[in-house]
Structure formats: structure tokens, C-alpha cells
Write a structure and sequence with these properties.
The chain is mainly α.
Length: 66
């Protein structure tokens, strides 16, 4: 995915995520933590790359709840 497109998608998702209720943000965080635990149990590096990608999209920098 071109960097400019990724930047646009991340920006849009970031705006949406800032409007979510705290309980939904917490559920996303829990999901990503559990997914990361499972990815770390495999030898497949693509699993870890996917978790990193999802964290980048779903937990943008500058989120005061991080």
C-alpha cells in the first residue's frame, strides 16, 4: 500500500477512534494484546507483522489513552 494512502487511512481511522467510548477503546486494546500473545507463540513472522500493522492503525500516536 503506498505510503500516502496508508497515511490517509490512518488519519481517517484515527479521527473515528477518538470518538469511540472508553469501553470500546479498552476492548480494542484487549483484543490487540490477546492477538499479540497468540502471534508470539508462532514462528510465523507475518503474524507479528499483522499485529504491528493493526496496532498502527487502531492505536495512532498521540492517543492520550496510550
Amino acid at each position: 500500500m503506498p505510503a500516502i494512502l496508508m497515511s490517509i487511512v490512518t488519519g481517517i481511522v484515527g479521527v473515528i477512534l477518538k470518538r469511540l467510548s472508553p469501553i470500546v477503546k479498552e476492548a480494542i486494546d484487549d483484543f490487540l494484546d490477546k492477538l499479540e500473545e497468540k502471534a508470539n507463540t508462532t514462528k510465523n513472522t507475518v503474524d507479528n507483522m499483522l499485529v504491528d500493522f493493526l496496532r498502527e492503525i487502531l492505536q495512532p500516536d498521540g492517543d492520550p489513552d496510550d
